[in-house]
Amino acid sequence: MENRIKGIVIAMFVILSASAAAQNYREYRQNNYQINQGFNMLQQDIDELESVKRDIIRLEHALDRHNIHKVNSLQRDIIRDFHREVEQSGYKIELAKREVAESRAEVRSERHESRRNPYDRRSRRDSREDLEDDRRDLRDDKRDLERQIERYRKQKDILRDLKHFNFHANGHEAVVIQINMMYDFMRIMEADMAATKRELREDHRESREDMAERHEDRRYNHGPRY
Predict the structure, then answer these.
(1) Rounded distance, CA 67 to CA 156, Å?
(2) What predicted TM-score, i.e. pTM, was given to this entire model?
């Protein structure tokens, strides 16, 4: 009877360890996917920001030369680019919502894991640490989502005003105001790019933590090799 109980305990421990290892591997895969996705978005943001900067400078030069045809042409190009940026910001909101949902699921999973094995002191300690890490990641993801929504709303407001503005019909001073609004939009693009860089750093940190957890899982489950 005693051997049977020991066998059951060992079997439960093996199952719980395998479940925790699988969870760590899923988080590792997810973080790597987010890193690749974030890197691609960052490269795209850098290219688009440089393009917008060049067009705004060209617009200012055309305005100084009173080349209204060129001014209106560049205005259309910039507004088209801003419209694309607003759409991309909306897409980034959906990605941020997905990350919040995934982080929330990780917290629930880690909480569940910590309750499944109440008798193993090491597992309880590791589960508490993992749970705190997951809660911190969830807080970070919620903060990133709120800031992404704020940038999106500001971009939409600026774009709405620019789309209803006629450079030819308004005076020079009004045009200068609109160009300043374009620079405001560009600064939001820079803030968005900085946020992507920060999120990439967070994803790299999470990936390193998951890799360390996977290494610890292998060492703990298989023991030292001789």
Answers:
(1) 28
(2) 0.72
